[in-house]
Amino acid sequence: MSNVLIHATPEDAESAFYNAIAQRNLNALMNVWAEDEEIVCIHPTGAHLVGFAAIQASWRGILGGAKMEIRRQRVARWNGMLICVHHLIENLYANKEVGGPIQVTHIYLRGPHGWRLTCRHASPGANPMLKPGKMHRVLH
Fold it and tell me: How is domain 10-108+117-124 classified at the CATH fold level?
């Protein structure tokens, strides 16, 4: 990772994460992640990725697809001196189709390069617009 940016707060890191998705900027997105082989990303599809290379390859595919807009709402957060956990609800918009809601948990750790994302777990949430038993399309 070159030109490492320092994220002074977990909120700075989270804003950078979503801005990078909106701009379809893989380098900026990966700058939010810790450079560690133990980082984890679980997509709503259930794909369980471990390590920087696997996560980067996955996001390369996602950002290379349909342009996405993500509207997020913070549900809860816990801040410590070295660790922070955010729980959010995401609603995804791609090609004028709505996907979601997605329940997301982000775990940030503070290190020498500021706050970095070490775990993202995204799961399909209940959509009150869908009838029971109907599956909804997950965009990533």
Answer: Nuclear Transport Factor 2; Chain: A, (3.10.450)
